[in-house]
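note to self — DONT lose this again. spent like an hour looking for the file last time. sequence + predicted structure for the chain T wanted, 277 res
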Amino acid sequence: MQTIGERLEEARKRKGISIREAAEATKIRGDYLHKFENNQFDIKLPDIYIRGFLRIYSNYLKLPSEKIIADFLALGLGEGGRPASRGLNREIYGKMEITHSGSSAAKNAAATPAPSAAAAAMTPGAEPVAPSPQRQPFQPRMPLGGLDRALLSKNGLWLGLGAVALLALVIWGVVALVGGGSDRPAPSAAVVEEPVYIVALRPVQITAVRAKADDRNLAPTPLPASLAPDQRYPLPNLAMLVTVSAREAVQIEFKGGRYGANATGPGTLDLDFSAQR
């Protein structure tokens, strides 16, 4: 009958897989797989990890994992692949002395503490012994349900003074916020920046609007923009270059005033009304 390691090694070699490839596929260390194939299970890990690794490796090699685990358990290995200890865990529940003499029993009963209930339950033939009442720890009593009357009055006084001080601080803050604001000058109204308009005298197209400082696009709508007669095209009040299909077909409007272009044909208008904001 083949051992666990022989079956694992034979299945791996039959598939043409190396230990390294198997380790990368199963995420199990290669030295662990090598030990498993040599029937060495002393990898100093709990049994649950060893069984888990064997199950993963068996499934990866298409072997019956339950049979592999059963054969591993049949080896009688304990934690980390070492032989399991057959000893029993013992607990000391108490001491009990049994004498046959009536007088000795009376003397020993006075000198030896009574066995605990757990000890009586673990001793064959012994009758259960009622547990002796345990003495509660000493707890000093305090008047008024645990609080001294003088302490109550003192704490109440300090709490009252603290509440009064807090209320006065809140009132002072509200008065300073509301009353003190009358001495400050009223905030000035927000300055609304006047835009620059391109006004069409006849049908015309705006093909580009670029900032002179950084050449970024300033057009508020996708270009080219076709304007009908008397249609206004708003632009920000910045230094800019506006390219149109016919310069004589447009006028520039700013703060109610209109300015004509001193050129004809397609070209670029150099506009800068920023100093007149």
